Amino acid sequence: MSGIATEVTMQRRPEGALKDDDFAFVERSLPAIAEGEVLVENHWMSVDPYMRLYLTEQSGAHAPLQVGETLHGGAVGIVVESRAKNLPVGAAVQSMLGFRDRFVAHASELIPVDANLAPLQSFLGVLGLTGLTAYGGTYHLLKPQAGETIYVNGAAGAVGSLVVQLAKRRGATVLASAGSDAKGAWVTDALGADSFINYRSDDLSEKLAEYAPDGLNMMFDNVGGGQLEAAIEAMAPMGRIALCGAIELYDSDNYRRGPANLFTTIERNVTLFGFNAGQFRSNAPAIVADLAGMLARGEIVNEETIVVGFDNCIAAFRGVLAGENTGKMLVQIKV
Amino acid sequence: MSGIATEVTMQRRPEGALKDDDFAFVERSLPAIAEGEVLVENHWMSVDPYMRLYLTEQSGAHAPLQVGETLHGGAVGIVVESRAKNLPVGAAVQSMLGFRDRFVAHASELIPVDANLAPLQSFLGVLGLTGLTAYGGTYHLLKPQAGETIYVNGAAGAVGSLVVQLAKRRGATVLASAGSDAKGAWVTDALGADSFINYRSDDLSEKLAEYAPDGLNMMFDNVGGGQLEAAIEAMAPMGRIALCGAIELYDSDNYRRGPANLFTTIERNVTLFGFNAGQFRSNAPAIVADLAGMLARGEIVNEETIVVGFDNCIAAFRGVLAGENTGKMLVQIKV
Lengths: 335, 335
Fold this sequence. Notes:
Strand content of chain A: 25-35%
Number of helices of chain A: 8
Largest interface: A-B, 33 and 33 residues
CATH class of the largest domain in chain A: Alpha Beta
Oligomer: homodimer
Radius of gyration of chain A: 20 Å
């Protein structure tokens, strides 16, 4: 007997913005661990915009969660009971079994992480899927060159804040947007973006024209919707766009829709790379090593917004969708 | 004095399908040619779907034609008077000054073509922008490999029929769609497509699933709209799409709109190459040489639908938009 776990389940399918009572905290008895299994206590949980997608019934790659099922997502934790040789008690492991404080799993379902390399929660951010997404999208797809201009939206978010820095390392001019002037100050002063656009108070098209009079060579799109459309209109010939997310649309009833002006990409020879981190799985060891080196040398800013307490995970989830975070949004489950 | 030219002007902005009285045939006196200029008699005129775009006021790369202005487009003709050393009388030249039977221009505005290399009208088709579009989109962007599957729509059209053949040359499996079973027979029997889909009578999604059970690796899109959406849903992971045109939408009030399911490209790591022939301008000599070799060796089928008589150019224009052509749609001005 491995004790009791608390899990977060979907009580009803959310419509629009998430409400507390769309979810429930449920206690479950865990089975005794079998040979090859471990009991893990989650210490950190990742809260990411894409999680909103599996709560809808809109068809897509993310199989819709059913009412009553437990939410999933990235987490790191520590093995507290073990019947698996390669994962002794005390081992740190990464899983996709977030939204629960503890769980039993077979060792083969877990990814061991090296807690000496970086703080545990880094494996959810810069050394996890966040880093893989930002690095792969920027260096493997967009390939910024010195003298080129890139527009990054959601630039104060987990992925965007890394993209800003990675593009600057290659000498690109970076235009960054986010939803408050405080974020703007951070994005320019701490991350090195060349110009900031407040998408709530500025006219995005006007600002793009002002900051990129010769057009955008690249866009890294975390937001979609109107921001993607404005950027497409601002693209220079032969521009490249990394389509990473569409957070502006996630609470809407149609997040899957394309921009109203796709035809412009034909006229201007613009390439759109739809992508997710899965594309870079085979490159992950090299990418993580490169990012770990930058992190260790203090060359990249790795900001985290930490919500303390498992009880607050839905507030954190709602917060990341509303852009309340700066850098990576994390829930610290075990203090 | 170089005589009288007949030109086709836009009399009013067309709404929906083109009507004869949207246009007028107008006679104009041509000036005497000056030093460096030539008088050209057009022999062949290209009629292409994209021409519909500059008749609308929807914003885009194609500057809208104003009421009363002469339509433009690809043409080849013969110099009949010359005050330019490099273009003697009898020289064959390509221009973008279609929709007129003769014209005066400076030699620097014209592209000399080698009438010994291939029939004159080939420089509007397989050795012109049509060939550049098909070859560049297929070989420079999609890069088909043996064992891969590509879906080509508008496959009986000028560009599509070349794409089918170029993809087959690289060993890809080709699924081709067009609007009649007669075209289907031609596309499979003459061009070598592996499977045919009649987009008017078949369920496109069903047929794509049947013919590409493991998904599409590539799509060459001439049609846009619902056909692009169906193909996106049928894409395999890491698929590539060449966005070349959206003929299904050209008569509509919004040809610029994107697909309803762009988000699928994020989930499946699908790249979309918006492109036009301009992208391959620097590669044009090599591309034209390669295509001319294939043509001379009889390795590619170069079908033409020829409408005889300048008077019939609007009927030909309407015809290419309605898919009445097989292969390249041409107007023979001078018989």
